[in-house]
Amino acid sequence: MDEQLYAEERKQSIVNIVNEKNRMQVAELADLFNVTGSTIRNDLRELENEGLVTRTHGGVIKRDFQRSVEIIPKSREFTNEKYRIAERAVRLIEENDILAIDTGTSCRAFAEKLINSSLKRLTILTYDLEIGLLLSEKTNYQVQVIGGAIRNGYPYVSGSSVALGLAGFSVDKVILGTTSFDKSYGYSTPNYETAEMKKSLMNIGRIKIVLCESSKINQRSFKQFAKPDECDYLITDAQITSDQQSDINALNINLLMV
């Protein structure tokens, strides 16, 4: 137990040192922690698998992005940033639009703001059961829910039947959530099936609008669903840095900050 605890403490210390110094050699870390080079290489392999560092030949460098992991539903939060972003997205919607809405808390916040808007005549397509029910109960919108197997523990249907069901539609605007955005990697999510569903959603939309809190920028998740320049609007909060703004503007994306 003590050895395991020490190993975890050592790995955390390695991450802190690498983040501070930007790069370290295996031999330097072995001397510093009084362990073998093989032990350090095992530590670095585990840390890289966790997305915390990047290994190099004979050493390690600081990772220039953070890896995002999937959050279970009960720990998802409806933040003030989410609602401000959602409110800005609603301003892009026009009367008589046909919308396809993704799943997730950002999209749920968008649906809530849509209900409180002055828009009366919309057609909604979604695979999120909560969003579909909410909009059908609170508005007179025409709501179409794509069928499929419900993903256990989540309020949406998933699987290949969703992608097949979406293929027959065409919509004006697609509202998407994302777990992560990186200027080189693009938009990504931890779940493979969810990524494929998002891809299918994008394929049927004329205008793609992504809702993305600034805390998700410079992160990567397991599966990419869109390249950096494949979406038309990226809406985020004012905590975004000037460097991040410059990077996104260089992609010719319409960046909206709230």
What topology emerges from the helices and strands here?
Layout: H1 2-21, E1 23-25, H2 26-33, H3 37-49, E2 53-56, E3 59-62, E4 66-67, H4 80-90, E5 98-101, H5 105-115, E6 123-126, H6 129-138, E7 142-145, E8 149-150, E9 157-158, H7 160-166, E10 171-177, E11 180-182, E12 186-189, H8 192-203, E13 205-211, E14 219-220, E15 223-226, E16 233-236, H9 242-249, E17 254-257
Parallel strand pairs: 4-14, 5-6, 5-10, 6-7, 10-13, 13-16, 16-17
Antiparallel strand pairs: 1-3, 2-3, 8-9, 11-12, 12-15
Main pleated-sheet profile: 7 strands, parallel
**Proper CATH architecture of the largest domain:** 3-Layer(aba) Sandwich
Fraction of helical residues: 25-40%
Order of helices and strands: HEHHEEEHEHEHEEEHEEEHEEEEHE
Radius of gyration: 21 Å
Oligomer category = single chain
Mean pLDDT, as a whole number? 89
Alpha-beta classification: alpha/beta
Number of folding domains?
Answer: 2
Q: What is CATH's topology name of the largest domain?
A: Rossmann fold
Share in β-strands? 15-25%
Which CATH class of the largest domain applies here? Alpha Beta
State the distance separating the first and last CA atoms: 48 Å
Tally of strands: 17
Keywords: DNA-binding, Transcription, Transcription regulation
Pfam families: DeoRC (PF00455), HTH_DeoR (PF08220)
Organism: Enterococcus avium ATCC 14025
GO molecular function: DNA binding; DNA-binding transcription factor activity
